[in-house]
Amino acid sequence: xxxxxxxxxxxxxxxxxxxxxxxxxxxxxxxxxxxxxxxxxxxxxxxxxxxxxxxxxxxxxxxxxxxxxxxxxxxxxxxx
Length: 80
What we know:
Layout: E1 5-9, H1 16-26, E2 33-38, H2 43-54, E3 57-64, E4 71-77
Parallel strand pairs: 1-2
Antiparallel strand pairs: 2-4, 3-4
């Protein structure tokens, strides 16, 4: 999937992935896509709740089991 900015949140635990995501979204234009890679299993529910509360759109959620530590890859479109 195409994206405009990538954010590496590997190794960070709640609430840091969400805080970094908020900062990343502030740095892109409305309608652009932020890719976030996280390893915290709790980030799945955290990002779903974050998008619901803020109006940003989660375009996809993928799990990568091939990495050394399981990764969660989110594509989030900044609300317009």
